[in-house]
Amino acid sequence: MPYLEEIWQRKWVTNNGVFHRELEKQLCEYLGVEHLSLFSNGTLALITALQSMKITGEVITTPFSFVATTHALHWNGIKPVFADVDPVTMNLDPEKIEAAITPQTTAILPVHVYANPCDVERIETIADTYGLRVIYDAAHAFGVRIRDRSILEYGDMSVLSFHGTKVFNTFEGGAIICRDEKTKRRIDNLKNFGFVDETTVVAPGINGKMNEVQAAFGVLQLKYMDQVLAQRGAIDERYRKAFRNVNGLSMHDVPDYCTRNYSYFPLLVRPEFPLNRDELYEELRKHRIAARRYFYPLISEFPMYRGLPSSNAQNLPVATALSRQVLCLPIYPALEQEEQERIIEVILACAWRNRRAS
């Protein structure tokens, strides 16, 4: 309430207000980056990142992501080219990236799926070899570090989401992390209709500004991040302990040299499990448990993209298989241990069933 009273007293509710500036400053310090621009949501941030770099032609990306990743390309008039993913990390497979490059390719748009870092070093080598730009969709990867270096420092830009489902959120929100002050100024102009002063417009910008209420909520929430991560980590560990030796269930691991933010808990339901993924999903729904088939369907299977040559399922066998096996279990700080144990009990009960007749 004190923050809301401050906003009301100032009568400054948007357009780079006090809380907006404070949140940018605090996020730079927390994340270990120098140049960050806040946005009203992550999708507008990704659209603007591509616009700010004047990306055109073809961009190689993953089908195993939330659809906003590819929609941002579409809204910029860019042709998405889907490449398959690695079966372990579930991120873009560097070998498949290289095989998908054509004379029209201008950039790579990888996603750090479930906050598991992409193979950033190999992607950087590929980009340098072929003269490509790299924009990371880091929507899941708030606070993740690789060998004590922020994951957001890799590539030309990284884009965060602060949607209500994320580890850190501002109800809706997002940010672009870039490499220099000049680029940040261009991004800040673009998110404010292209204005540089009261009467001068230098680019066909958009309205992507974060308002003061969102920013104040972010400043408040940032104070509790250590507690949030500890709570999520405890939930993650209980799931891992429960399912570690269950035949037909496998869990997503992050390398030891990476920090984890416990943003999701994806469970892969393999053919050896008595129920297939969709049967387990429906069983959980019967018990009013909100698991998600995340990501299913693949982006490449949606009507606006399935006509692309790269959307052919034969081009994406790993991503296709994962999308039919993955099930993300509830994980959030307020999830009580008793409720989590109920979720675990339902899944373990299913593990003892005989497979249904097909």
Concise structural overview:
The protein is α/β, with parallel strands linked by helices and 358 residues long.
Account of the protein in words:
The strands form three sheets. The protein has a seven-stranded mixed sheet, sandwiched between helices. It has a three-stranded antiparallel sheet with strand order 10-11-12, with helices on one face. Strands 6-7 form a two-stranded antiparallel ribbon. The longest helix is centred in the middle third of the chain and has 19 residues, at 225-243. The protein has two domains: 2-83 and 90-222, Aspartate Aminotransferase, domain 2, CATH 3.40.640; 226-291 and 329-351, Alpha-Beta Complex (Aspartate Aminotransferase, domain 1). Helix content is 37%, strand content 13%. The protein is an alpha/beta fold and 358 residues long. The protein has helices spanning 2-10, 18-31, 42-52, 68-75, 94-100, 120-130, 181-190, 212-222, 225-243, 277-286, 317-323, 337-351, and strands at residues 35-39, 58-61, 79-82, 105-109, 133-137, 145-146, 149-150, 157-161, 174-178, 249-251, 266-269, 326-328. The chain contains twelve helices and twelve strands. Strand 6 (145-146) and strand 7 (149-150) form a beta hairpin. Keywords: Aminotransferase, Pyridoxal phosphate, Transferase. Belongs to the DegT/DnrJ/EryC1 family. This is DegT/DnrJ/EryC1/StrS family aminotransferase.
